[in-house]
Amino acid sequence: MEFATFATRAATIDAEPADLEIVDHVRALLEAAGEDLEIVARFVQGRVFPAWDSTTLDIGPRTCYEAIARAAGTNVDADDVEERLADRGEIGDVAASYDFGGQQGLGAFTGRGDAGGDGNTGSNGGELTTREVAETLSDLAAADGAGSQDRKVDLLFGLFNRCSSVEARYLSRLVLSEMRIGVGEGTVRDAIAAAFDVPDDRVERALQVSNDYGRVARVARDAGLEGLDAMDLEIGRPVQAMLAQAGTVMGALKDWDEAGVEWKYDGARIQLHHEPPSSPGSNGAPAGANDAATTRIYSRNMEDVTNALPEVVEFAEETLEQPAILDGEVVAVDDAGEPLPFQEVLKRFRRKHDVAKAREEISVRPVFFDCLHAAGEDLLSEPLTRRHDRLEQLLSADENLDPAAVDGLSLLWFSDDPEAIESIDAEALEAGHEGIMLKDPDSTYSPGRRGKHWRKRKPDIETLDCVVTGAEWGEGRRATFLGTFELSVRDGDASEKRGSARSTGAPQHLETIGKVATGITDETLAELTALLEPHIVAEDGQDVDLEPAVVFEVGYEEIQSSPTYSSGYALRFPRFVGVRHDKDPAEADTLERVQRLRYGGRR
Amino acid sequence: MFKAIVSAETLTSALDSVSVLVDECKIHLEEDGLEIRAVDPANVGMVDLSLDAAAFESYEADGGLIGVDLSRLEDIAGMADSGQLIQLELDEETRKLHIQIDGLEYTLALIDPDSIRQEPDIPDLDLPAEVVLEGSDVNRSVTAADMVSDHIALGVDDAAEYFYVDAEGDTDDVHLELTQEDLIDLQVGPAHSLFSLDYLKDMNKAIPADAEVTLALGEEFPVKIYFGFAEGQGQVTYMLAPRIQSD
């Protein structure tokens, strides 16, 4: 397809406000793309390479301005282009405003009109094709080392020099990843389905496994539904990660009756692709069928981060005997194996140099929670329960091993009991993790979807400032710390009757509403103990009564009616947020506010 | 089969005159010498180079073709002092080039020639005007034009019989005239064309100041620039397509 044809159609799409009409234009474009279908299906989304391919053009705006300036004519420089951009606000508009093509090519003088066979050496009089653009951009992405920036300008200049106004508009947007003609992934999916008469859910499936819009379009056209259905995951081609939305325990149990619960790790998401040496179970993956194991690790954005994470590669080589694609997190750990904050992982994650040195400073370890492919079998459409079983089998050397002892395995519990889930949450926090994930046990793996099947427990809908009225001495290593703090709120009405509590210094009228024990580190417990100990008024075994003096900010998931506490309410999943040093008990939240939050709807 | 010994200076001159246009090139290892032809990605500038076997201390070849990364090879050649000799030998089996400079040995991986941009056809141009001048005058013209503009016009006034250079900037202009007396030779004919300094500046870098340079010009036609190096046993021809002149 001539690039001018593509650009003209892109302009039509650009001007079209209605989604359905856009799909129809894209459909027509795909039908007309001929040999260049794969390229066109990518270009229309503003992509040069397939989504699984982490190759980037790596063209800075300045490189593009220089190329435009050179093609634009005499005495135009990159600053002029930038100035015009400031005026017009959009690079496509700027590129379209110049008159390109002043520089002639030698091909115009050879008498043949075209100096070579591979297109690149064609005279500048010839029509630019989408294939030539794609090939030139691919050469450009491959340029590296000294002088590569100049070479990129040269190549790009060569393209712009052959561009008409409308071609220049879309070429500049394409190279700067600013296509923005209203064509999203869904648009292309629907257009492929319409153009080649295949059901859109099957196109969707093929897109999920291949992560390559160009290839799916070509297969749909050339091999139809049968071809699409035969497309599988390939080791070495990352797919998009399944994502979670925020949710609550109560909501999850209401929707699914039983929830899968796992720890939420404070790490960076990874997708591990592993092919053991010459594995017989391979499904013909391009990276496989060799003598050495092949292990690639991809980030959530499908960037190849293999070289930055040698521990994970070693883990895969030592553990995995079958081809596999696993979904998990990589967590930074200290010498004792305790998790470190997310920022520490980032110091390792995209590192390209001095990996060995960084590894000495911060170790990482992988934790896997899902399995997309095992031993030649794609598992995307299997339920979570089965995928997790396969994961466990892959990771455990001995099937009788307790799952808790399997290295690299994120445990998955199933429960319909909020109390039990609460205690898993408490354990996760205790172990230094972020909390819990809730997963629908029957759900399939949907790449790239932020669906309701996976939920991050939303920790705090609202916080309450509660007075601490009691506590318990801890056990074991926490025996010298106060913990499990009893929380109370003011009964505002009662306080009114007695006059202003604050001015008289009279005891507050307080009602208990719950206990908070989670979300507190040992360090904080020590501080809180020091803060509260002077206010102990009575002790009975481990139980301690405190005079109202300290106010905690407490998060929670829900307020329930409850006979357990004197307020008549209980906080579900209470979590310590901090001490309100700026507030005294007379300024703590009231029962009235609790009632409002309980019944009045949430803000 | 290819085995040759050449002075560092000769090899460097040859490589430099090609690398101003391309990063990679094919080198023909002919029986009577090396030949390189390459065109830039936009097909605007071209180089045609030959280096006779006589320019080498010793030379044996039987018509092979290799692809090289020019900056690599230039870096290696740069390790030699200008008087030093560089020995080149192609290992046919591994497709690598062994390079030896005294005790220093370097094994250079070659590039598959098929992956390098196709060599250009050389336009067969009948250019009416021919200007022969010193490399230093080309250098002066380019440098002066570059001060005011990013383009340069080259022409011959066929009535008054002189060669001229024009550069028009946004504010300042440059005009240079070289008469028969300033030039080594002038063949008068109608000639005026506009060229991008981006290219001409690069080509100028490879033109030795003391070389005798021939410019062949026409009206709105490419310029052909040729000069010798390695005591006349190497020849470089550049060809540069013109810019269409507005108005």
UniProtKB/TrEMBL annotation, chain A:
GO terms for biological process: cell division; DNA biosynthetic process; DNA recombination; DNA repair; lagging strand elongation. Its EC number is 6.5.1.1. Gene3D superfamilies: DNA ligase, ATP-dependent, N-terminal domain, DNA ligase/mRNA capping enzyme, Nucleic acid-binding proteins. The keyword Transmembrane does not apply. The keyword Cell cycle applies. ATP binds at E262, R269, R300, E329, F369, R450, K456. It catalyses: ATP + (deoxyribonucleotide)n-3'-hydroxyl + 5'-phospho-(deoxyribonucleotide)m = (deoxyribonucleotide)n+m + AMP + diphosphate. One of its GO terms (molecular function) is DNA binding. Its cofactor is Mg(2+). Residues 357-491 form the ATP-dependent DNA ligase family profile domain. The active site is at K264. Keywords: ATP-binding, Cell cycle, Cell division, DNA damage, DNA recombination, DNA repair, DNA replication, Ligase, Magnesium, Metal-binding, Nucleotide-binding. Belongs to the ATP-dependent DNA ligase family. DNA ligase that seals nicks in double-stranded DNA during DNA replication, DNA recombination and DNA repair. This is DNA ligase. The gene is lig.
TrEMBL record, chain B:
Residues 122-242 form the Proliferating cell nuclear antigen PCNA C-terminal domain. Keywords: DNA replication, DNA-binding. GO terms for molecular function: DNA binding; DNA polymerase processivity factor activity. Pfam families: PCNA_C, PCNA_N. GO terms for biological process: leading strand elongation; regulation of DNA replication. The keyword DNA-binding applies. Gene3D superfamilies: 3.70.10.10. Residues 6-99 form the Proliferating cell nuclear antigen PCNA N-terminal domain. InterPro entries: DNA_clamp_sf (IPR046938), Pr_cel_nuc_antig (IPR000730), Pr_cel_nuc_antig_C (IPR022649), Pr_cel_nuc_antig_CS (IPR022659), Pr_cel_nuc_antig_N (IPR022648). NCBIfam families: PRK01115.1-5. HAMAP family: DNApol_clamp_arch. Belongs to the PCNA family. Sliding clamp subunit. Responsible for tethering the catalytic subunit of DNA polymerase to DNA during high-speed replication. Homotrimer. The subunits circularize to form a toroid; DNA passes through its center. Replication factor C (RFC) is required to load the toroid on the DNA. This is DNA polymerase sliding clamp. It comes from Salinadaptatus halalkaliphilus.
